[in-house]
Every structure is written in structure tokens, then in C-alpha cells.
# Entry
Amino acid sequence: MNIYRIMRKVTLIAVFICSVTTLNAQEEVVGAIFKNALGSDVAYENLRILCETTEGRISGSPEAAAAVELTRQIMLGMDLDSVYLQEVMVPNWKRGEREIARIVSGHYGETELNVIALGLSVGTGADGVSAPVIEVGSVEELEELGEDAISGRIVFFNSEPDHGHYNTFDVYSDLVGMRFRGPAAAASYGAVAAIVRSATTAMHDHPHTGVTRYEAGGNNIPSVAISPVGAGVLSRQLVNDPGLRLYLRTTSYRLPDVLSYNVIGEIRGSVYPEQIITVGGHLDSWDNSPGAHDDGAGCMQSIDVLRIFLEEGIRPKRTVRAVMFMDEEISQRGGNKYADLAYINGEEHYFAIESDRGAFTPRGFSVDASVKNLEALQGLLPFFSPWGMHEIIAGGSGVDIAPLKNYYDMTLVGLLTDSQRYFDVHHSANDTFDQVNRREMQLGSAAMAAIIYLVDHLDLLEFSQ
Amino acid sequence: MNIYRIMRKVTLIAVFICSVTTLNAQEEVVGAIFKNALGSDVAYENLRILCETTEGRISGSPEAAAAVELTRQIMLGMDLDSVYLQEVMVPNWKRGEREIARIVSGHYGETELNVIALGLSVGTGADGVSAPVIEVGSVEELEELGEDAISGRIVFFNSEPDHGHYNTFDVYSDLVGMRFRGPAAAASYGAVAAIVRSATTAMHDHPHTGVTRYEAGGNNIPSVAISPVGAGVLSRQLVNDPGLRLYLRTTSYRLPDVLSYNVIGEIRGSVYPEQIITVGGHLDSWDNSPGAHDDGAGCMQSIDVLRIFLEEGIRPKRTVRAVMFMDEEISQRGGNKYADLAYINGEEHYFAIESDRGAFTPRGFSVDASVKNLEALQGLLPFFSPWGMHEIIAGGSGVDIAPLKNYYDMTLVGLLTDSQRYFDVHHSANDTFDQVNRREMQLGSAAMAAIIYLVDHLDLLEFSQ
# Structure
């Protein structure tokens, strides 16, 4: 064996040892990240405080303003390189008084129903409205029925969930179109109000709210969500008494937009500080709950990623930014403003990840990226499978980070979590702190910290600005 | 191309079409099983009834007897081929009055602690015991301290959980030795009582019970579990006041064994009726809770497997038996009796699966079998990954089916579920029906029905009697 071949062999062995060492070193860092998260109650405690002190932090509310200040103070106490606010004008819709819905039937008498106004709905006025009800199973059914059947009535959108999907987001997708588009469509046929079965997988008597969409200049009618149990009651009474009337009273209204903020904290990159990695959740919630899963948890997990980096001494090459986005639920102003400002300020964006599927056990990542970057991320699976994550798949990322795509050819990721329980609580009064399991939430923080560490450390992704 | 080659080609194509058709047909059946389970509230409702009517069904109790009759009646109403009971004598331990534990400290005054007697513990007598406390971090530490340090004292076993494990069963395994072996070891050094930190991943003020083991002829001392919060309080007070005394009062006692039953329902096999497939859970629970996750859910899921087979028209080749085992928590008499009778009666056992890790989202299967059968089961992964199950691994099966190994060379499987929340509720008063998510429980029924269908339909496993 000549000296050249020996040297080549030595080099190959050295490269092999190096790469194995590096892989092991990365596995060790990932392990340290998970163990750190599972050993820290900081994010869970922060979520408890957020839920207790800023319950109902819908955009424009004093509670949302308090949440801005709370998360700013939390990050100011963390030895970050910078903490700042981004101004954003947000909608200011108010629910008003507790809604009343009452069936008045010659056959059954009076029956109270649990309803909640949909976001952006107008009110009925203090006297309420009373009208006969027409039940439909879809928005399309309105067209078949036509204006004669609908005009002057309250349209009752009622469709049973298809429970057969594994992923409850698929169940929700089937249902949510009625909430988004139903009221505006009913208004266009002359309906006086709309009542929509809650988009939930649960069978209980809690209504689930959510925004409804109106075309610019379109007719806005009072629209409410009804609990699944209530929907069953109304539907059965309609079978036996089609002439029953529904009395509905809502006093929601909209005020002029107000100033609010995205809240940002960052660790400056040590090699490519100009390249930004975003990790975020949205700080606003619906006004009927503490918004524990949706999305207080995502915010506190995002801050926790920074805490883990600091505590584990992981100095990222790129700037890692935790962003609490404002106004995801109504108009997504925070996410759009963040992307607009990034572009205006000439920022470079490398990677973004959002946690907005509830603080449940993480199952993987949903990737909105080029095939090449998706495959690069899928190569990370061996780092995650020991931590119960087996799915790195193509799909949507998060509502708040998605606008970055308007300007950047980059990789966006959503944290995938166990979906089974999410729509039990989503947009309802049940979205409370006690529904969050400490360990499940901690694993979510760790998963996001780990993928950020890996893509940054390995310079894994292609991107162009 | 000659006729021979043409025929060969046609044959190959036919075989290919057949195998693809078969694979698709099996996928379809698996899909139908999952959709059936997700669309049926029967098992969830049965669990609700079990929890409401037989709360605290520890072996030997009237509640356990009621649970036997309830599950027998449920299966009698199901058009099964047979429903019957298996006699088994079970221990009859009684907790007595609510336990009292009170720190009496010159420094801190009196502090009440939440404790619960460990299963099989003797009582203190009506007057209770009062003694100084010595804290140890492990059973091994007793030996180092020796009899002089321990005699006449109450031994306080206190070890913080290592939260860094992903699987909470690993956290539990670290802790449970103190509960199993600690009190008997303390007794052998002359301790007057034992108080053990609850084996839980939660940080709350609920104590978690569980059985403690005594050697035959060994000294039995009063032993209780203390809540995690209480353990912290006691430990801190001991630091500042090592001379404090603990007053402990428990009135638990043991009565003679009583007759109870395993409850069995079966669908007779259409091809190999003599070959048995067992699916089970245990019907007894601890006396301090409705035992929703542990293991009412496992029982109702097992019955649900039969319901799914009947409703979907799946006629198994082998006899499929749902078994509600009695007395898992104290002495595992039901599981042992089932195996003994199987052998005595000359039964052939092909496959058994148990659900006793809580009704959480299923993650896969833990397989106790030959390498060949493990690999055969791992080949089924593509059927399960669309339903969120990615782990078919070597490991333990279930406490109740494990005794079958005493007589049979067969394949035993445990349903693996998401472990994050299990030890929040396990053996505590928190193990209530409201902690069970309908969909998570339904997926567990489906997972067991699907694997039974596949191993039976494909004749997948080697076995010998």
C-alpha cells in the first residue's frame, strides 16, 4: 500500500469519525433540548399567568393589551439581545351582552339554546329578532332553495361532522365553510339572521365561535354559533313543528380599529445575524375563554425556545426571533404586518415555524417548502423519532407566518400535534389552562427548539430573497 | 411469444392483480374498522355507565361484583356466540376510614398532609402512630443507614421523578420500586410505618395509591402514599426541623379472599374455532376512583372489538374472546386463572392483546414474541400509519395476558398509547370519566380490532402449543 493510499484511507476514516461524532453531538444537543424542556415549568407557568390575567384577549381588547405587556415583560427578563414591539392596527369587535336564543313553538313551548355570536357579526338590536327557521345542510343548499324560501327567515346551518377522519382538522375543514361563508350567503338571499352548528368534534352544550366573512359591501346579518346539543334540539323540534319561531338577541358591534402590537424577542445570530429564523404563535384569543391552547400555549412555547437556547448555551448562527402575533382570529393583521415590515426593512428570512394546533403531544412537522427543502427536513426524522415524532409531511404551516411567502422563497413549518382533543376546546369557553398538560406542552417547545437548532446548525435549507 | 410465455405472463398479472386487490381489500377493512369505531359512542357510553355505577371497584368489593354483572349483561345483549364467567378467588383488602397524616413540629406547628394507604397495607389501629421521620431517596439507602437510624421511626421514601424520559412509563419504573419494596424493607429495619412519594409525573396535591409487596412471613407495617406537593412540604420541614414527628392513622385491613370472576364473551371462529385470540383489560380498579383509564376503558374497548367485528360483518377464522380480567391491581389472580384454565382445558392460544395503558391516542403495539412474529407484525405498519400509529416494537404486553406465556409459545401484544397524561391520573382520585376523550378511546378499540383482523385473516403468526 503506497503512502497516497494510506493517507487517503486515514482521511476517509477521519471524515467518518468526524461525521459520526458530529451526528452524535447533534443527537446529544437534541436530547439536551428535550430534557431541558421536560424539566422546566417556566413556559407552563407563564401560560397559567397569561390565562389568569388576560382571559378573553380578543384583538382590540384591554386584555390583549395586557397580554402584549405581559409577554414583553417576560422577554425583557430573559437576557435576550433585543425585545421590541411592532405596531399594527387591529379590528375592534365587541360581543356586547350575553346572547339569547329561544325557540318558541306551539308544540314544545319555549326552549333556551346556548349560542354565541360569530366574530364580526352585527347585533340584532336590543329588541332582538323573531322569525321562522329554515334548516340547510350546506351553503350550496341555499341556492337550490332560492330567495322565496329564505327571505325573512333565520337560516339554520346544520351538518353533522364526519367523525371518520383521523385528523380532526379534516373534520373541521368540512364544517368551517358554513361558518365562514354561510351567513353572508344567507344574507344575500334575504335571511334576517343565521345560526350555525358549532364546528367541533365534541357532543356537548358549549357553542364554539369563530370569525365569519362578509364581502365588502355585502349585507351583514346577525349570526351565531349554536352548541352541538342545541343544534340537535332545534333540528328535532323543526321536524315536528316546522312553523316554530326562533327569537335571537345579540348586541355585538364593531368600533374603529385600534393600535396594537406584535411582540418580538430575539437572540442575535453569531455567524449570519442578518438571516432570520422566526418561531411564533398568536397572542390574541377569542373573547369567551382564556385561550390556553389557542394560542397562549404557542406563544409561551415560542418564548421557551429562546429560554432553552440560552440555558443550553446554544448560540445560533442565525438570528432566532420569538414572535407573538396579534389578531390571528379576526383579520390576521399581525402576521401580514410582520411580513410587510420584513420586506420593507430588507430582512433576510431563512426559516419560520408556528405552533397553533394546541399544546398537545407533538407528532411531527407540516412543511410548506420546495421539494428539496422538504426532503432535507425529512432527513431529520431520526432525530425526532426517539421523541415520538414520526411525521414530516408537506402541508400548511401557520396562519401568522404564511404571509412571509408573499415576499420570500423560504421554508415554513407548522408544529403538528395530536389533533384528537383540539376541537373539543377550540373557540369555546372550554379552552382553559386545566386542559393543557404540562408535559405535552413542554414537548412542543422542545420540538421547535430542536428543529431550529438542526436547520441552523446544519445550514440545511436553500433559500433566496 | 409462445403460448407458454403468454400464459405465464397472464398468470403473473392475475397473481399481481389478486395480491393488490387483497391488499386493498385489507386496507379497506382496516379503514372500515376505524371509521366504525370513530362513529360509535357505544364503548364510551358503556365506560360512562361503568364509572358512574361501579366507582372504586377494587377486587372483592361490591362494586367489583356489580362491574362483573354489568359487563356480562352488556355482552349478553350483543348477539355473541357465548358469554360466561370464570371463577377466581380474589384478595379482599379494605381501606377503612379516610387516612390522617399530620406533621407535628415545634417549628411549624401542625400540618395536614394528603395521603392514601397503599394496597395490602395494615392499619395503624384506631389510635394511630406518632414517630420521628427519616427521609431516604431509595430502598438501597436504608441499608447504608442501618437499623439504629431506622428503628422506631417512620421512613419517608422521597425521590423526585426524572422528567427527562419521553415515555412516562420509564419515569414510573424509576419510582415504583420504592412503593413495591420500600415498606417491607423499612419494616425489616424496625420502622414503625412508611410514607412514600406518589409515583406520578404530576405536581399536585393528590396521592396515588398502588399495591405494596410483603415477603411471606415478613413484617407488615402501615404504609401510605403522599401527594407530590405533600412530599415537598414534609421534606422542607424536615430540613429545618429534623426532630418533627408525624402522626399517621390508617384503618385498613384484610378479610378472607372472596369469590369473583373473569367475564368473557366470544365470537366463535369460522375456520379454526379451537384457536383462541384474546383481547382484554382488567375490570378491577383502585378503590379511590372510577378507574376510567385504569382500566375501565380497556374493558370497554375489548368488548368494542367484538361489536366492530359483528357490525362490519367480519367473521374471524379463529375464536375471538373479550376478557375482563379480575384483580390486576392486587394479586393478578384473574390473569393467572385465565392462563391456568386455558392450559387445563387444552385450549390453543394464537394471539392475545391487552389495553391497560389508558385510553389515550394509540401510538402502536408493544410485542412480546419471537423475532419472526415481531417482524411479521412490523410488516403491518403500513396499515396503521394512516391512523397515526408508527411504533411496533419489542416490549411487554399486559399484566393480565402475560401468564399465558407460562404455557404457550405465542404472541402477546400491548396497545401502546400516548403516555404523557397517564400518570397524572393513574391510581389517583383523578382517574375519572371526564379525563377520557371519546375519539382517543375509539381509536384504541379500532387499533385492537384491526390488528386482530389482520393477524387472523393473514394467518400471520407462528405458534406452538
Remarks:
- Residues 33 and 312 of chain A are 7 Å apart (CA to CA).
- The first strand of chain A starts at residue 82 and ends at 94.
- The radius of gyration of chain A is 25 Å.
